Amino acid sequence: MDPIRNPYAPGAGQRPPELAGRDRELGQFEVTLERVGAGRPERSMVLSGLRGVGKTVLLNALRGEAVRRAWGTGKIEARPDQSIRIPVAQAVHAAVREVAHRHRDPDRVDEVAGTLKSFALRATVEERRTARSAGVRWTPPTDVPATRGRADSGDLELDLVELFTDVATLAGDLGVGVGLFIDEMQDISIEELAALCGACHEISQQGAPLIVVGAGLPHLPVALAASKSYAERLFRYVSVDRLPREMADRAWRLPAATEGVTFDDAALDELYALTDGYPYFVQAYGKVTWDAAVGSPIAVEDVRAAAPEAEQELAIGFFGARYDRATPAERDYMTAMADLGVDADDLAVATAGIAEHLARKPQSLSPARDGLIKKGLVYSAERGSVAFTVPHFGKYLRAR
Question: What are the start and end residues of every segment in region (Disordered) (predicted)?
Answer without folding.
Answer: 1-24
